[in-house]
Amino acid sequence: MNFEELQKTWQAQPAGARVTIASEMLLREVRRNARNFKITIFWRDVREVGIAAVLTIFFAWHGWHHRQWTEGVLALACSGIAAFMLVDRGRQRRRRPVANEPLKACVVNSLQEVTHQIQLLRTVLWWYLLPIDLAVAIDVLVPLAPAWHNGWDVLIDTGFVLGICALTSWFLYWINQYAVRKELEPRRRELAALLAGLEGNPPPDAKP
Amino acid sequence: MTAHEQESIFRRWLDEHLGLMLKVVRGCAASPPDQEDLFQEVCLALWSSLPAFRGEARETTWIYRVAFNTALAWQRGERRRRVGHETFLKFEVSPRVQPSHADALVEWEIVEHLYAAIRQLPPVDASLALMHLDGLSYQEMAEVLGISENYIGVKLNRLRKQLAEQLQGVAHEL
Question: Which residue of A has its CA nearest to B112?
Answer without folding.
Answer: A16
